[in-house]
Amino acid sequence: MKMKKKLLIMIFFIAISYVNVYAAEDRFKIYDELNKNAVLDNISSTYVSSDSGINFSLPSSDTNGKGLYILNSTKDAENKVIYYRGNIENNFIIYENFCWQIIRTTEDGKVKLLYAGTPTDDTCQATGEGMWALENKVKFNNADTVDNVGYMMPDEDGNINAVDSVIKTEVDKWFETNLSGSIDKFSDTIFCNDREFDAAANHHSGWKRIQDGTPDYKCHNIDDSFSTTNIGNGKLKYPVGLITSDEVLYAGGQYHEVDPNNYYNSWALIDVAYWSMTPQSVSKMLYPNSKGYINRNNMTATSGVRPVVAIDGETMLTGDGTRNNPYRVPIDVNYTVETDDYLESDVEVAIEDQTVNITIKGKKGYDFVKFRFYDENGEEKNIAVEGDRKAAHFQMPNYNIRVESVWQKRANPETSTQSNKLGLLLLLISISNIVVITKKIICKQ
Q1: What is the pLDDT of residues 213-228, one digit of tens each?
Q2: Out of 215, 294, 348, 396, which could bridge 249 as a Cys pair, Cβ 3.0 to 4.6 Å?
Q3: Which long-range contacts link 176-183 to residues 24+ away (Cβ below 8 Å)?
Q4: What is the pLDDT of residues 326-350, one digit of tens each?
Q5: For residue 216, with 0-12 CB atoms within 10 Å meaning exposed, 13-18 middle and 19 or more buried, which class applies?
């Protein structure tokens, strides 16, 4: 029995230790975390040697972009567009039981994520085909014709975006099976299927932007702007799509004729191929291929599938984004709330950011001055209190808290009572004397 008791005590302290370590881990909003580490992409910086910034005609490298960058044209926007570029491995996140890689933020405050496999012991170790959402390759569509470059196609009456492509059907099916139960955890955003066509050049605009090194995140045609709501064409059933060739360009990819020595210098280029959402010509789609560059292929060919979703930039996370410690949504941990004998809290346990109400019960002979807060180690903490003494409240931090009250002593109540009695007696004596004097005066008259 003694051994069993010791074992239970040991387990208890290990558990407490784990909670304390976890509780100490920083929490942050995903957008804030990316923004604080990003630099402008049109200037020289640690991994950009040119004074004019990144050259998108060339692949990413240690001198042409590696890390987090702010799209210069959005530097003054309310939500700057921030993207990962280069051969990096610190953009992993576990979200809703899957691993993803952060592509970029959007001008409407969202963060786009690219599927990256399933977690292993809360880490993201998948590579190669393990980063496909579907076990097998699939074709983009059933025919190599101009209508089939659409993520959705026209029907027989010519109504645009009326029929699902093969790839959309597969992506929707995957989302419905795996994530439809938590659909409210995902945000609507634009998934661009840019079908703008240059008849003279006989290719789509996405291919020209690769050749010119001029990627563009904007989707200029509303019919190509796939979404679930009216921020775009509203044609999607679920908030999921595919990566675009422009997003791969910003991430550091390029066409194979550029520099074969720099293949795989972008996190978005892996040793297996997967479809993008961008057409190249009337019969081909662009895609990151298994050789480490952007290529083109017939729509009836097959390739892997890595869905793209979006989450709110205000999402709270922990971690550092690496494979072994990916960003993740913290588990709500209950922290204790203690008060001294003169205060009362409306809760005994609370999660981070929960509003905790404090009632001042009172202390005889004293006036309340202020609150003091201490963590479990007895260290005084600076926590803002709102409201007044009748309805005070604060936001719970991510550690156990003790609230103590500070009071100021009033004058001695007994002394005050005796003084009051003496004063009253003297007043009565004084009044009596006045009456006597008054009477004497009357008698003399």
Answers
A1: 999 999 999 999 999 9
A2: 215
A3: 176/238, 178/98, 179/96, 179/238, 179/240, 179/309, 180/238, 182/96, 183/238, 183/239
A4: 999 988 778 999 999 999 999 999 8
A5: middle
